[in-house]
Design a protein that fits this description.
Largest sheet of chain A: 4 strands, antiparallel
Helix content of chain A: 25-40%
Largest interface: A-B, 62 and 79 residues
Strand content of chain A: 5-15%
Order of helices and strands of chain A: EEHEHEHEHHEEEHHH
Oligomer: heterodimer
Structural class of chain A: alpha/beta
Helix content of chain B: 25-40%
Radius of gyration of chain A: 20 Å
Radius of gyration of chain B: 22 Å
Shape of chain B: globular
Distance between the termini of chain B: 52 Å
CATH class of chain A: Alpha Beta
CATH topology of one domain in chain B: Aconitase, domain 3
CATH superfamily of one domain in chain B: Aconitase, domain 3
Number of domains of chain A: 1
Number of strands of chain B: 19
CATH topology of chain A: Aconitase, domain 4
Distance between the termini of chain A: 45 Å
Number of helices of chain A: 8
Strand order of the largest sheet of chain B: 5-4-3-6-7
Structural class of chain B: alpha/beta
Largest sheet of chain B: 5 strands, parallel
Number of helices of chain B: 17
């Protein structure tokens, strides 16, 4: 996975609260093979009006934020379904950082696996950032993962990220490779566990 | 901490199962955990694709089980109408599980059904196990004292390849519900009123242990419903300590240990409950007597209120973003503040999903519907083929059919609409499911979450209704 270092792009002030993964990608698109790209499904139904036309008042459709790789939302972003496609839609659309006061646990974990940074600011900082002219005007803001800083105009915010996730994003680590380096520990665990929890192995019914 | 002091320090059930599954503790505190059961479904194709890309094999096919649930048709003859892409999803699961030697309960299999209904009912879910599945409602299995949580596709691939998963230790929350639930109420009312109270993001980062006399008093089916909805309060997992009720419920189930092996297992499982003086990071207490039949009015599970209430006014909400979300929700739902919830008319009902499709749920709905006719169309989808057979033996299917409802097959069905069973655009559905998100049951669908008895009552009257009024003089 590509290591995450610094992003400097416009940020889309989405501003919504409780954006669940059913909004990020409606279920009907999830039969699509990933190779076709999930970008067009991002917030598909919220972006459109009843006639299926793109809503001009929806931030993601605003030309000012066309080239954003950063999105700003209110609390509980990515709640609900565990669908990793909720991250694919963002990443395939080129968005690799979401800034919000809180994230759905599974969404946040999925985002790390796909090189997307879930950066946390307090609710009041999010309000300030959403109102910051640099953001509103669609001028680039800077997200610096190593220093956990967001610079927007002459404002600077320190964001939160779990230390293990930060390390993983910066190094672009692959979980499977890391786990395989513990093969001996896994083997030892299995050997010891079999004796202590014989009931843990499913019985084969007739 | 040395091993000896660890053994002496009081532990929660969460700590005990965590410790029993820890293979490696990394410097940053993350642990590599052993996975006892992994359930894959049609949506797990992303995970299998990652496996293929690496040329890897399933590490432990004997601990992996395929469950066709998200895309299987749940209406008679519907498979012929399903689009090719949907059929491919169902076929892919069969192909992937066959290729890797994984037991699969595919379409048409006598054990087929929703993973979170099938695994407990088949004895695959046991106390003290660590269980994962690429589905956020995996929290359901916690009802039997398992440590169970939903994972994403990359994690699915990781578990397939290694039978392990990296996790950071969650904070521990004990939610105590004491007192007695009023007659005619269910675990669904309990869960929805909890979420209404604490909010959808409250329990993020926490593992929940549900405790207290009202939780102990719940049937196992009720506990499954309660734990199922943990994710809607933000927690990846919720659990109930196993007790005699749990053990008796599991006894004799096909994949569970039998005879002496089962008795020996019980001895181990009795050590699982939290020690008396174990410390939690957070404790909360609720009074079961305060819980009323609860329905949702908006587009988030926290938009819930007692059926006797009126729809709240966003003008009274002090947090601006929350008030805006409420306004948007009411706009989407086609409702207005101040309206009595019982005045909300519905277009159809859906009784099913991993939340409420077990035999007890169907019995509760049938108790309301018996001898009555539904004013609106509706679909009843049993959670598993086993539940379906049992319901038919009990004659419940006749009650639903005589009421004018459709009696379907087992699967996720109209809860998520992936199999083509959707609520038509603009229609309002009284639903026993878990999410009232915009478009969840189909594009433009409007969902009101409630218990099976409440959904049945809405079917009878055509509007949201306190089911207790329809149960007077009837055996619950």
């Amino acid at each position: 996975m590509k290591p995450f270092t610094v992003l400097e792009t416009p940020a889309c002030p989405l501003g919504l609260v409780n954006v669940d993964t059913d909004q990020l990608i409606p279920a009907r698109f999830m039969q699509t093979p990933r190779s076709q790209g999930y970008g067009p499904f991002l917030l598909h139904d919220l972006r459109r009006d009843a006639n299926g036309e793109l809503r001009s008042d929806f931030p993601l459709n605003d030309p000012r934020y066309r080239d954003c790789a950063i999105m700003i939302a209110r609390k509980n972003f990515g709640c609900g379904s565990s669908r990793e496609a909720g991250v694919y839609v963002l990443v395939d659309q080129g968005i690799t950082c979401v800034i919000a006061p809180s994230f759905g646990d599974i969404f946040a974990s999925n985002s790390i696996k796909n090189g997307l940074l879930p950066a946390r600011l307090s609710e009041s900082e999010i309000e300030e950032l959403l109102a910051e002219p640099t953001v509103v005007d669609g001028r680039p803001i800077r997200v610096d993962l190593a220093n956990q800083k967001i610079i927007a105009g002459n404002r600077s915010f320190d964001f939160d990220i779990r230390a293990d996730w930060k390390k993983q994003l910066i190094n672009g680590w692959d979980d499977v490779d890391m786990t395989r380096s513990y093969a001996k520990d896994i083997e030892a665990f299995v050997a010891a566990d079999g004796g202590s929890r014989p009931w843990a192995i499913p019985r084969s019914p007739r | 901490m040395t091993k000896d002091t660890k053994a002496q320090a009081p532990q929660t059930i969460i700590d005990k199962i965590w410790a029993a599954h820890t293979i490696v503790t990394r410097e940053d505190g993350d642990c590599l955990l052993w996975v006892d059961r992994h359930f894959v479904h049609e949506g797990s194709h992303h995970g299998f694709a990652q496996l293929k890309a690496r040329g890897a094999k399933v590490a432990r096919p004997d601990l992996t089980f395929g469950m066709a649930d998200h895309y299987v048709p749940t209406r008679a003859g519907a498979e012929r109408q399903q689009p090719a892409d949907t059929r491919r999803m169902i076929r892919q699961l069969q192909e992937n599980t066959t290729l890797h030697g994984v037991t699969s309960f595919g379409e048409g299999h006598p054990r087929q059904g929703i993973a979170h209904v099938v695994a407990p009912e088949q004895g695959l879910t046991l106390p003290g196990l660590l269980i994962v599945c690429g589905d956020s409602h995996t929290s359901t299995h916690g009802a039997l004292g398992a440590y169970a949580f939903g994972i994403g596709a990359s994690e699915v691939a990781h578990v397939l390849m290694t039978q392990t998963i990296w996790q950071s230790r969650p904070k521990r929350l004990r939610l105590r519900i004491d007192g007695t639930l009023a007659p005619g109420l269910s675990a669904k009312d309990m869960a929805l009123s909890i979420i209404a109270k604490i909010g959808t993001g409250f329990a993020q980062g926490y593992a929940i242990e549900y405790a207290g006399s009202a939780v102990s008093a719940l049937s196992i089916e009720g506990r499954l419903t309660l734990c199922n909805l943990s994710i809607e309060s933000g927690s990846r997992l919720g659990m109930v300590a196993p007790d005699d009720k749990t053990f008796e419920w599991i006894r004799g189930r096909p994949f569970a240990p039998q005879g002496h092996a089962f008795d020996a297992a019980i001895e181990d499982w009795r050590k699982l409950p939290s020690d008396a003086d174990a410390e939690f990071d957070r404790e909360m207490a609720l009074d079961a007597a305060e819980i009323a039949p609860t329905v949702t009015w908006g587009t988030s599970p926290e938009h819930a209120a007692a059926i006797t209430a009126r729809i709240p006014d966003p003008a009274n909400e002090s947090v601006a973003a929350k008030a805006e979300a409420m306004r948007e929700a009411l706009d989407y739902m086609g409702l207005h503040a101040g309206m009595a919830l019982t005045d909300v008319t519905v277009d159809r009902v859906f009784i099913g999903s991993c939340t409420n499709s077990r035999i007890e749920d169907l019995r509760a709905a049938a108790a309301v519907l018996a001898g009555r006719h539904a004013k609106v169309p509706g679909l009843v989808s049993p959670g598993s083929s086993t539940v379906k057979r049992q319901a038919e033996e009990e004659g419940l299917d006749r009650i639903f059919l005589d009421a004018g409802l459709e009696w379907g097959g087992a699967g996720c069905s109209m809860c998520v609409g992936m199999n083509g069973d959707v609520v038509p655009e603009g229609e309002r559905c009284a639903s026993t499911t878990n999410r009232n998100f915009k478009g969840r049951q189909g594009k433009g669908s409007r969902t009101h979450l409630m218990s099976p008895a409440m959904a049945a009552a809405a079917a009878v009257t055509g509007h949201l209704t306190d089911s207790r009024a329809l149960l007077e003089g009837r055996k619950p």
